[in-house]
What we know:
alpha+beta; 1 helix; globular
Amino acid sequence: xVKTVVLCGEDSCCPxxxxxxxxxxxxxxxxxxxxxxxxxxxxxxxxxxxxx
Length: 52
């Protein structure tokens, strides 16, 4: 099962996050980045800690 989260409103150019069982995809349209679950957790921590 895939869970998709859109980060902005419908009328804006905004990335979406697709959460799969063993990896996460982030991006827009054909421009998607695939992260392992571990890489996604690191990214999430850096965003929460305002490092990026």
